[in-house]
Structures are given as C-alpha cells and as structure tokens.
C-alpha cells in the first residue's frame, strides 16, 4: 500500500512543481578545485607553455617598440615640417611675400591706409616673436666675395646701396624690421614737432594696374616727443644687448664704429622732420622753430636728419624751396645738429620735390645746400603731376581713374624717368658748385655732396641706373607696397646678376 502512495505523491509533486531552468554549472574549475594539479603538468606541456609565453612576451616588446618608433617618427616629421615652414615663410626670398601677401591685403582691406596699418602691426608683432621675415644670404648670390654692392656714405661703409623711404614707418615703430628685410638705409617719419592728425580720411588710393598710389596723408604724426621716446628706448635696449650704456653710444666707446642711430654695422637710420600744418609758411622764423624743435628731440637718435620741404600735401611747404628761406632753414638745422651731445654728429640732408625741375629752381636749391652746409640731397617725392603716369596700352578701371584724379601726390614706377633725369641734373649742378667753391678757396677740394634717389625704383636695373647717374643710394617706397617684404632682396639679387654679366 505504501509503494503506490509514494509513487502517487511523486507524480503529484512533479505535476505541481514550477518550471525552473536548469542551472548551468560553470565549466571553469575553481582555484580550490584545481588544488595542486596546475603545478603537476606533463613536461611537454610546460615546455610548450614556456615557449608560447616567451614568444608572446617578445611579440609584445616588438609591438611596443614599433608603437614608440611610429610616435617618434610622426612627431619628428611634424617638427621638421614646422621648421621648414618657419624657415620658408620667414625668408624674404619666399614667393608668398610677393605673390600672396600684397594681393591678399588689397583684397581683404579695400582701404589702403587700413592695409598699411595692419601690415605694420603684423610685422611689429611677428618681430617680437622672432617670426618676422628676414634676409638670409647664405647660399645666394648676395654672399658674393668682395661684396660688389658695398658703398661708403658719410664715412660709413654700407652693406648695399638700397634704402627704404619715409612713409612705410611713419612713427618709427619698425625700423629694425625694415633693416632685417635687407635695406642698408631706413628713413622713418615724417615727424612734426607737435602731434597732428593729417588730412581727413580716406586719403590713400591704390591704382593696381600701374602699381601706383595717390596719397594725401598731410604728414600725420604722433609728434617729436613720442618718436624720440621710441627711438631712445630702442637705443637703450640695443646698447644693453652690446653691454653698453646710452652714454657709451653717444661717446662712441666700445661701439667699434657702429653708427649711433641704426646701432647696426653697415647701416644708417634717417629721421625725416617737417613743420606742423598750422605753422604759417610765410613766418619763416616760426617754420624754423618747428624744425629746430624736431632736431632738438630727435637728432641724438639719428644718423641723418632729413629736412622735408617737398611734401605736396602740406600747404605752402614747397614754397620753402626758394633759395632765401631754404638757406635760412637749412642753416638753422645744421647749426642745431652740431649742438647734439654726441661724438658723431648727425648729418643733414634736404628732400626736394620732383616737380621743381626748372633749371633756375634747381640752381637755387643747390646754392642753398652749399651755403647752409647741408651734407646732401634726397631727390624725389610724390608728384602732383598726372601726365604720363599711365603707360600706353594700359586701361584703368573706373575706380582707378577716380583714384588717379584724387588730390594728392602720385607715386609709382611711372616716376622713374623723372627721378633718373633729376639725379643726373643735381649731380652735375652740385659738382659744378663744388669745383667753383674749390677754386675760390685755399682749403682744397670741397667734399662732394651726397645724393639719394627715390621715386619709381622697382628693380635692380633701375637701381643701377640711378646709381650710375650720380646717386649713392636708391630708395624704394611704393615698390615695397606692391612687391612685398622680399623687394629689397630681389632688387639686390638682380643688381648682382647684372654686374656679374657685365664683369664676364
């Protein structure tokens, strides 16, 4: 009886028991289940495992080495690429400085003055970071033995006869940047005794079809005191770099003949000065006072002072080129320059207009130069004339035609022929006066007056032509606006190539 009952109970229990999924027992034995069996493997298994482990370890080491090598090569390639890019972009020979940067600035900044300020600020910032363009002569024709471009001016042997005219660095913000572009002469300014805004904007107009410009800045300036402060700070910094004081520079002690203005061997810093617009040009005494004040503030930091009496944008300024007022003005500047508390006194030059080309007018300027004791003449400035500035066959757009007719001074390649002609005339007149003075004096031959030429110079051939005509230095302005930071390097390279061909 018990057996049937037990069977019935088991059946009922199975019928009413919940359906539960069978538990899956892990096939991995526990550590305790393994006991010591893990350490009692056959010899063949131990050998195989050891070999496998060694192979795995070796493979891992190789993978780690390859990974590190890839990182090193990748990082090295990036560093090398950055260095090559830095070396290329900071070299004045780089094509981007001529074919990319100037067109880009013209495209992004339709206002020429705004583009000028952006360019100046960019160069100043890049210079502070040592990322600015600079001339590298190693491996180029500029590293020619004997330096065929060397020229002696005012007792200083210049590395080359190329200069940058005033206007690019109106307030002496970037003279060292411009020197690094390869120029041996840099002219800053023009500077007026008191700050002045200049003429209303817009006041600068491009004419790209002829690589020209019209400007009527009106000698905008921060004033002589502000420029003097910048030049003084610059001199003190460069003197400290040489282990000298400002007084050492003034006294010429420990400078090895380095010009006190440029503070660089083989280079000269010119500072252009002018009168304020509000000073009555008919009051010669007041005009002289303006220039003398500029000399007093700026002469200690200049190698050469440039007296600007030729700007077409300051009313009455060109009237000062008449012999009598010009002689009085230049004499006063020369006398004030001699008072500078410095062993090497600054030289004085006068900048004359390209429009005053009448023989009588030029003779009056030459007479004033000799009577006052001025050291030389800078021939050329912007011109008020518009005849012949557009070459035959060139068509200007309507915008360019309007720009050309704007009031102000024109500058561009079209000026070159006039510059060349004037250099030849002034050389002849100055030398003739020198011979006359020598014959009338018992002191021997008079020192030859120096000529710098500016106006329309854009290539090496033109530079050589003005030098052969009697100039000691060829200066550029608008050529750099359109040619970019590599213009000076390119002109010098073209000069050397042309001289090499002639020598051959």
Task: Tell me the distance between the termini.
Answer: 138 Å
Q: At the first level of CATH, what is the class?
A: Alpha Beta
| The CATH homologous superfamily | Aldolase class I
Number of domains: 1
Number of helices: 17
Low-confidence stretches: 1-6, 18-45
Organism: Cercophora scortea
Region (Disordered): 41-61
Keywords: Flavoprotein, FMN, Membrane, Oxidoreductase, Transmembrane, Transmembrane helix
Domain Dihydroorotate dehydrogenase catalytic: 149-499
Task: Tell me briefly what this model is.
This protein is of the alpha/beta class. The protein has helices at 2-16, 31-34, 43-89, 96-99, 101-108, 112-128, 175-180, 224-241, 246-251, 284-298, 323-338, 359-372, 398-404, 416-440, 460-468, 478-483, 487-503; strands spanning 151-153, 156-158, 162-164, 185-191, 204-207, 212-215, 268-273, 304-308, 347-352, 376-379, 409-411, 450-454, 473-476. The protein starts with a helix and ends with a helix.
What does this structure look like?
The chain has 504 residues and is an alpha/beta fold. The protein has a single domain, classed as Aldolase class I (TIM Barrel, Alpha-Beta Barrel). The strands form three sheets. It has an eight-stranded parallel barrel with strand order 3-4-7-8-9-10-12-13, surrounded by five helices. A three-stranded antiparallel sheet has the order 5-6-11, covered by helices on one side. Helix 12 crosses helix 14 and helix 15 crosses helix 17. The longest helix is centred in the N-terminal third of the chain and has 47 residues. Its cofactor is FMN.
């Amino acid at each position: 009886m018990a057996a049937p009952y037990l069977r019935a109970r088991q059946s009922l229990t199975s019928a009413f028991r919940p359906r539960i999924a069978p538990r899956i027992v892990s096939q991995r034995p526990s550590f305790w289940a393994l006991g010591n069996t893990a350490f009692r493997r056959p010899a063949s298994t131990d050998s195989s495992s050891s070999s496998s482990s060694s192979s795995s370890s070796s493979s891992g080491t190789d993978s780690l080495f390859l990974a590190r090598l890839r990182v090193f090569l990748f990082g090295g390639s990036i560093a090398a690429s950055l260095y090559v890019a830095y070396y290329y972009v900071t070299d004045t020979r780089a094509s981007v400085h001529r074919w990319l940067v100037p067109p880009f600035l013209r495209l992004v900044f339709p206002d020429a003055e705004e583009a000028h300020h952006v360019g100046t600020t960019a160069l100043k910032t890049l210079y502070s970071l040592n990322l600015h363009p600079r001339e590298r002569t190693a491996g180029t024709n500029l590293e020619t033995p004997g330096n065929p471009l060397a020229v002696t001016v005012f007792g200083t042997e210049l590395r080359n006869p190329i200069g940058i005219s005033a206007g690019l660095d109106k307030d002496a913000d970037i003279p060292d940047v411009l020197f690094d572009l390869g120029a041996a002469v840099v002219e800053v300014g023009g500077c007026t005794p008191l700050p002045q805004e200049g003429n209303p904007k817009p006041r600068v107009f491009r004419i790209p079809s002829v690589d020209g410009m019209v400007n009527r800045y009106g000698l905008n300036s921060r004033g002589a005191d502000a420029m003097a402060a910048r030049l003084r700070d610059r001199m003190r910094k460069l003197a400290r770099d040489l282990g000298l004081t400002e007084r050492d520079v003034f006294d010429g002690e420990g400078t090895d003949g380095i010009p006190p203005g440029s503070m660089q061997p083989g280079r000269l810093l010119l500072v252009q000065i002018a009168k304020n617009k509000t000073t009555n040009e008919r009051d010669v005494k007041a005009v002289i006072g303006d220039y003398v004040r500029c000399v007093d503030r700026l002469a200690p930091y200049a190698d050469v002072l440039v007296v600007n009496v030729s700007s077409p944008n300051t009313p009455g300024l060109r009237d000062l080129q008449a012999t009598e007022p010009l002689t009085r003005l230049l004499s006063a500047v020369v006398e004030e320059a001699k008072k500078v508390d410095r062993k090497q006194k600054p030289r004085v030059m006068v900048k004359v207009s390209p429009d005053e080309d009448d023989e009588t007018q030029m003779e009056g300027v030459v007479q004033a130069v000799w009577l006052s004791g001025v050291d030389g003449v800078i021939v050329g400035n912007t011109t008020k004339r518009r005849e012949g500035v557009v070459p035959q066959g060139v068509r200007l757009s309507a915008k360019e035609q309007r720009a050309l007719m704007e009031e102000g001074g024109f500058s561009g390649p079209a000026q070159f022929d006039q510059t060349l002609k004037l250099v030849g005339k002034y050389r002849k007149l100055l030398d003739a006066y020198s011979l006359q003075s020598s014959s009338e004096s018992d002191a021997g031959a008079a020192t030859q007056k120096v000529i710098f030429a500016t106006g329309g110079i854009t290539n090496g051939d033109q530079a050589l032509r003005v030098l052969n005509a009697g100039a000691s230095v060829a200066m550029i302005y608008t050529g750099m606006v359109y040619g970019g930071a590599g213009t000076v390097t390119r002109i010098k390279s073209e000069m050397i190539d042309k001289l090499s061909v002639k020598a051959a």
